[in-house]
Design a protein that fits this description.
The protein is mainly alpha-helical. The protein contains five helices and no strands. The protein is elongated, with a radius of gyration of 18 Å.
Amino acid sequence: MNLTRFNALEIFVAAALIAKIVLVADHLPFIRLFCKKPLLAPIFWKTGIYSILLLFVRFLIRFVPIWINLQSSFYIAYKEALQVIDWNVFISIQAYYLFLLFIFVTFQELSYKIGPKVMRKLFLGF
């Protein structure tokens, strides 16, 4: 079973799920744990939380089709998924997402600290 290629519907569903991670994680009670600390602490904290959730969702995106196709127990499908997934690609994409999340969270936290008016002035000039 080759699962390295996705069809358009799978890509759409995966992108929608991954995009919702930030929205859901922002409502978790512990996400703003380091908001009173220097800027580096909340950036690393939120990036870590988003990365862990993203890793879990990405694995589920790969695991659920295997489980449905095999029509077997959870454990057998889990073992099959661990063997079928191309881990080099999976980890490379996760590292890329980590980088993108870091940039996103850095700008998000910076805008929280300096405010929307200063951000608008810095980026748009008015």
